[in-house]
Amino acid sequence: MKVLVVIDMQNDFVDGALGTAEAQAIVPRVCEKIRGFDGLVLYTRDTHGTDYLQTQEGRQLPVEHCIKGTHGHELCPDIAALCTGTPIDKPTFGSKGLAEVLAARHRYEGPVESITLVGLCTDICVISNALLLKAFLPEVPIIVDASCCAGVTPESHRRALECMKVCQIVIENNAAD
To answer: CA 42, 175, 173, 41: dihedral to nearest 10 degrees?
Structure first.
């Protein structure tokens, strides 16, 4: 079984509180990737409570975002239209729940052939989940499609890709350009 994980393609990261032009630019490519993917597609959502500013993350990044129950927390409309299941809400950068689900499927439902990650932000949640999945499933190829990711800045996106490459994450760039 091949798996595609769509990381945090939420309104607040695309065009909301922490949105960027780069994040907006990848939405059509991520949609195309989802539509063309032959396998299991899972989605994550960064999820915070109203106490966000009192958390460690909130003190480090004092911009309220992805508060559960708000518009910013929801998947952006183009991605939401393709989502057939319930996204995995995650209160931290990396999702231990996602890793546990995929490890269990690998063990009990047959081998996971590969896991491809796309989404936001390359330098925070994509890298955290790629490394976490690598730790849970060290023999499963973990792939990041760089053309379907965006970082906080273009430079931090590039640095995250280089870091993942060194950690034996396969970096693909499937942009049509």
So the answer is: 10
Q: What angle do CA 119, 120, 125 make, to 5 degrees?
A: 110
C-alpha to C-alpha distance for 33 and 117, rounded to whole angstroms? 10
pLDDT tens-digit series, residues 36-65:
999 999 999 999 999 999 999 999 999 999
Are 79 and 9 in contact, with CB atoms under 8 Å apart?
yes
- Measure CA 123 to chain center: 10
Taking CA atoms, 99 is separated from 8, 105, 110, 130, in Å, by 15, 10, 16, 10
SS3 state of residue 66: coil
What pTM, to 2 d.p., does this model score?
0.96
Q: How far apart are the first and last CA of the chain?
A: 29
In the block, residue with structure tokens 């393609």: 9
Spacing of C-alpha 68 from chain mean position: 17
